[in-house]
Amino acid sequence: MVNVLFHILIFPGFLFAGGFGLVAEYVDRKLCAKLQNRIGPPWYQPLADLIKLVSKQDMVPEQSDATVFTLMPIIAFTATLTAFFCIPLWQMRALSSFSGDLIVVLYLLTIPTLTFFLGGWYSRSVFSMVGAARSIIQLFAYEIPLFLSILAPAMLAGTLSLSEMTVFYSKHPWLTMLNLIDFAIALVALLGKLEKTPFDIPEAETEIVAGSFTEYSGRLLAFFRIAIDMEMVAGASLLAAVFMPFGLSLGPVFGFILYLVKVLFVVALLSLARTIFARLRIDQMINLCWKYIAPVAFLQLIIDLIVKGIVAQ
Amino acid sequence: MRRYDFKVPIGPQHPALKEPECFSLMLNGEKIEGMSVRLGYNHRGIEKACEAQTYIQDLYLIERVCGICSHSHATCFAQAVEEIAALEVPKRALYIRTLVAELERIHSHLLWLGVAGHEIGFDTLLMYTWRDREIVMDILAMLTGNRVNYSVNTIGGVRRDVSAEQIPQILKAVDSLEERTKYYIQVATEETTIIKRLSGVGIVSYDDAIRLGTVGPTARASGVERDIRRDDPYAAYGELTFNVITDKHCDVYGRTLVRVGELMESYKMIRQILANLPDGPIAVKAPRKIPAGQALSRYEAPRGEDVHYVKANGTDKPERVKVRAPTLANVQAVAHMLKDRYLADMPIVIAAIDPCFSCTDRLTSVRTPDNKTGNIMTWPALHSYSIDWYRRCGIDFSELNKKFRVPGN
After folding, report:
1. CA-wise closest residue to A119 among A228, A236, A216
2. How far is the alpha carbon of B107 from chain A, nearest alpha carbon, in Å?
3. B195 — contact with chain A (CB < 8 Å)?
4. CA B23, B27, B31, B35 torsion: positive or negative?
């Protein structure tokens, strides 16, 4: 019982995931600022923002569906937190590993976007509704490439369990080099999932104020914020587990440091994309995902299939 | 009535707008089916206020019509008054006016480039251009003592001279700005996402640009070769050689190219001005009372043609001042540009005319709710109407008025 509570509350649960989420947000913001020739926030800024939000009053709009409106941030938060239990962080095995946990992780990471949609839609504000519609349209654009890009390495490893995938790639490290295209695709899809520039279309500030989050404030917004931060870390951890499965047997200390470096590397790539691109339009985003990224993901799938045939011989 | 799903109010308070203005968009999904513009959130009655003050006081008031092109309005007004008074402004003063005008154009266009970047979600461009804009702001502060409202004009000349030590500093700043601008031209013409967001958006054809009466970079980006600096030279522009930048793209991308092209022309002009700065006095003494007469003055502000009309009646106060800021000419084109476009294009299309809404709120047409033109109200009628209006809202000032004995009550 104590063990379970420890896992949920401290590691890899709330305290670790939330804390690391805030660190990742800080790195993202600071790096972005440096690239944009700004000073950037101090290290405690994400935490200070969170504390400020938590201490504010919750406002639920009169027209909104109060149940859905208040429930959605919590669901987003729990779903991302749960995803951490199935991703191998720096050992070979995740905390909870079973055949098919890859699908569970992808499923859990899809839930936040759905909550953005529902939360925004039931806010009943025009900006929220436009933003909600956009996030669901965007979901259809990036989700397929993301699934395909994770599926190809999984197929090469011949398993749908993340932990077994890491074991397989530790044995065949050179095969990870094969999945570089998929790594790029997964990064692009992750940008879409996290709604960051150039895919911050659902919360485009200059168009629809804050999209789904327009009506959110106080604790509910804080839950969304921390959920997005944790989603960033979970997504980056997933990418690290699938595409960078090296150095997993270095023991807890070095393994842990290496894990942090890997995740922060992915976060840094995301902030780099944030600074060098302009925001696309939703139609351009869908075109990009379906015309170029999805076919390339299929190409990688075919390459992996062929390689798997060769390896099997 | 066309079918639409949403009516999205963009403004009076919205992150895309830097000033209060209301654009109501009728959306069908993401597509804009119709749009209505409502002005009048920022009307300050400057034209009327001008009639109550002397010409010199008006100069400072007129300067506050616009925060960005303050020098444009002040120069335009001063030119009109000088024409009525038949003042011969010294050559050196004209050159200094032109110098400040071009520096102002640089700061305005750099500001616009940053805002345009922000509107399409490219904040890096905003941070970079606004950092570089500080260079020209510092030069303006050095020359005039102020970063924004320079107050360098006076009736009959300018108030501050350019010293010999300042010239190399300006040249140095212009050199570094030119280098940075070349980089921005490269970014604007090569970065894929920028081109994707800008090209084909907010199209105004050559004919439409003329029909809708667009001015400045908005018109020049549609191939309309109009520039007051060349067509009707004022200040020192008649003695400078420069090109009028036009573009055939007719879209927001074209407007960006015109503005960065104009930046390069401005650097060229500043070098010419500083090389040929004539000696002599910087102002002539202007009479306090301006003889009766009227004048229309035109000026190419960074946003387009600025027109001031001044009517003098022989006293030290003007009888009528009329300002037509460039945004008023351009804002009608926005509805045309947004026709059948997407919601996502709205911020950049509005930003692409480089709007200055407080400049535009010069004229207010009062309409009754059934859309018929209302009656013209006299001052006492308007006064009692406002008191009644507040009373209906549950606010009664009559007790307070008695207490403070406000005149007129």
Report:
1. A216
2. 19
3. no
4. negative
Q: Which residue of A has its CA nearest to B7?
A: A126
Binning chain A into helix, strand and coil, the percentages to the nearest 5 are 75, 0, 25
Q: How far is A126 from chain B (nearest CA, A)?
A: 6
Lookup: tokens for A194: 């996290």
Tell me the C-alpha distance between B399 and B409, whole Å. Answer: 11
* Domain spans in chain A, listed from the N-terminal domain onward: 2-312
Q: What pTM was computed for the model?
A: 0.84
A311 to chain B, any CB pair closer than 8 A? The answer is no
Is-contact A73 A115, C-beta < 8 A? Answer: yes
Q: Compute φ and ψ for B39, nearest 5 degrees.
A: -95, 175
Distance of CA A296 to the CA centre of its chain: 21
Contact list in B for residue A125 (CB cut-off 8 A) is none
Domain boundaries, chain B: 46-355, 378-409
A207 in B contact zone (CB under 8 Å): yes
* Separation of alpha carbons A106 and A165, rounded Å: 15
Burial of A122 (0-12, 13-18, 19+ CB in 10 A): buried
Domain B46-355: give its CATH code.
1.10.645.10
Per-residue pLDDT of A140-194, as tens digits, reads 889 889 988 888 888 888 888 888 888 888 887 777 788 888 888 999 999 888 8
Q: Cβ separation of B131 and A205 shorter than 8 Å?
A: no
Residue in chain B closest to A274 (alpha carbons) equals B122
Each residue's pLDDT tens digit, A101-123: 888 888 888 999 999 999 888 88
Q: Which of B125, B187, B193, B345 to mutate to test the interface with A (most CBs of A within 10 A)?
A: B193
Q: Is A278's CB within 8 Å of B193's CB?
A: yes
Question: Is the omega angle on the peptide bond into residue B217 within 30 degrees of 0, that is, cis?
Answer: no
Q: Is the Cβ of A201 closer than 8 Å to some Cβ of chain B?
A: yes
B254-271 burial, b at 16+ Cβ within 10 Å, e below that, comes to bbbbbbbbbbbbbbbbbb
User: With contact defined as beta carbons under 8 Å apart, do A79 and A108 qualify?
Assistant: yes
The rounded distance, in Å, linking the Cα atoms of B210 and B218 is 11
H-state helical runs in B212-283: 216-220, 228-231, 252-275
Nearest to B344 among A133, A209, A281 (CB): A281
Closest to B121 (Cβ–Cβ): which among A126, A133, A197? A197
